[in-house]
Specification:
Order of helices and strands: EHEEEHEHEHHEHEHHEHEH
Radius of gyration: 18 Å
Structural class: alpha/beta
CATH superfamily: Ureohydrolase domain
Number of strands: 10
Oligomer: single chain
Strand order of the largest sheet: 2-1-5-10-9-6-7-8
């Protein structure tokens, strides 16, 4: 019988956004009960002293490295066949994919995201936008040192990626990373299925950043921050998929290859965050 590890990782420093911390915990609570082992990676609460110190151009580098290593130790403790990771920012998928890429010879990495996550410290100090580059063997030496076996670029496919910067294009073009935009995935999953066949992929690790979904069709994502002005995150690409598209494409690829990894990332429960803020101001509660 296959064993599935449920890895809870309320990491927020990779995107320097405290809202990921509470939201990840809520997402873990929303899941149905697990019949297998569960582990929670220790993550300091937002506001902890020194947790956002910038080193080598990366915000909270020391904390993030320790959290990645804690995740690796939790996974290796169980050596599961499958890993469900509940984040947190996108960097939570570093250790799970490293583990799965060593375990399975023909592992494909399906990156469902509106952003390619291949930036370097030249473009951003936030490690969550660098994680796929790290998995491919590029970027900060300490994080790349955690990647014992870099992912083969031919085994990577983006889903729902429509826009990227010139700097990101250098990586995408240089490594010939394949991508399918949202429009091509609205009616069928053929491009993903063709990739699975061509690369003889037997197992899949799926990275699901919920911002691949259109803000108009899914509320709990960064772009829907309550009270944000019209210029909020101007110029940052928005996802264009709908929830039904994501569900369908995952069912389609699961019929072709076994999904052994799923990371759900960058979920932000604005309703819960607003409720907590209100409660903190109430008599007897806030006191």
């Amino acid at each position: 019988m296959q064993e599935e590890l449920r890895l809870h990782m309320p990491q927020w420093q990779g995107g320097n956004l405290s809202d990921y911390h509470l939201s990840s915990q809520l997402l873990s609570w929303l899941l149905p009960p697990s019949g297998g082992p569960e582990e929670t990676v220790p993550v300091p609460s937002p506001g902890a002293a020194g947790s956002l110190r910038t080193e080598d151009g990366i915000v909270a580098k020391t904390a993030l490295l320790e959290q990645a290593r804690s995740a690796r130790r939790a996974i290796e403790k169980h050596r599961p066949d499958r890993v469900l990771t509940i984040g947190g920012d996108c960097l939570v998928d570093l250790a799970p994919i490293v583990y799965l890429n060593k375990r399975y010879d023909r592992l494909g990495v399906l990156w469902i995201d509106a952003h390619p996550d291949v930036q370097s410290t030249k473009e951003t100090p936030h490690a969550h936008a660098q994680v796929l580059a790290m998995l491919l063997g590029q970027g900060d030496p300490d994080f790349v040192g955690e990647v014992e076996k870099p992912v083969d670029p031919t085994m990577v496919m983006y889903a729902g990626l429509d826009e990227w910067s010139a700097a990101e294009d250098e990586v995408l073009s240089g490594m010939r990373l394949r991508q399918t935009g949202a429009a091509d995935l609205m009616n069928d999953s053929s491009s993903l299925l063709d990739w699975i066949d061509e690369q003889r992929i037997t197992h899949l690790a799926v990275h699901l950043d919920v911002d691949a979904i259109s803000p108009a069709h899914f509320r709990p994502i960064l772009f829907n921050k309550p009270g944000a002005d019209s210029g909020f995150l101007q110029g940052v690409p928005r996802g264009r998929l709908e929830p039904a598209h994501v569900v369908r494409l995952l069912r389609d690829v699961a019929a072709k290859a076994e999904i052994v990894g799923l990371a759900i990332t960058e979920y932000i429960s604005w309703d819960a965050i607003q409720t907590r803020a209100l409660l903190a101001e109430l008599p007897l509660v806030g006191d």
